Amino acid sequence: MSAELNKSLARRYFNEVFNKGDFKALDEICGPDFVFTLPTHEEPFRGVEGYKGLVHTLRGCFPDIQFAVEDMLAEADKVMTRWTARGTHTGIRFPTVLGNVPPVGNRFHIEGMTWHHISNGKISRVTANEDGLGLIT
Q: How far apart are the C-alpha atoms of 103 and 94, rounded to whole Å?
């Protein structure tokens, strides 16, 4: 696939999955052996169904969460995106390594980077790194 088509997959990942909560989009854009890695989680999320649980939790904690793509670069089968995310903790308790944080209406603004690996026209692996402390401070 071209770099532009790979970038469009990455944009769908942010816009449709996170911003709109369209879980069907994950099935469309992710491959069968999808893996998501985040440094704050000891084990990667394997498979789309397991990853849907994480997305559901984030959208449950922060119902108004919105990701904005700030920069995006693509080369061969990789897309790197620098993004910002904002939201308000008005939903369910937010699970962290420090314990569950109750929803008290705190707003957050974090920055992060995500690397999408594309294989056969689908996202096969996502590696993300974010300002996790910005979610709980």
A: 7
Q: Whose structure tokens read 């402390």?
A: 133
| SS3 sequence of 10-74 | HHHHHHHHHHCCCHHHHHHHEEEEEEEECCCCCCCEECHHHHHHHHHHHHHHCCCCEEEEEEEEE
Which segments of the chain have a pLDDT < 70? 133-137
The encoded tokens of residue 74 equal: 């693509």
Residue found by looking up tokens 């080369």 in the block? 75
| Block residue for tokens 């594309």 | 118
H/E stretch holding 4? helix 3-12
Query: What tokens appear for 35 in the block?
Result: 């893996």
| The model's pTM | 0.89
Segment 68-102, tens digit of pLDDT: 999 999 999 999 999 999 999 999 998 887 789 89
* Euclidean distance between CA atoms 78 and 123, whole angstroms: 9
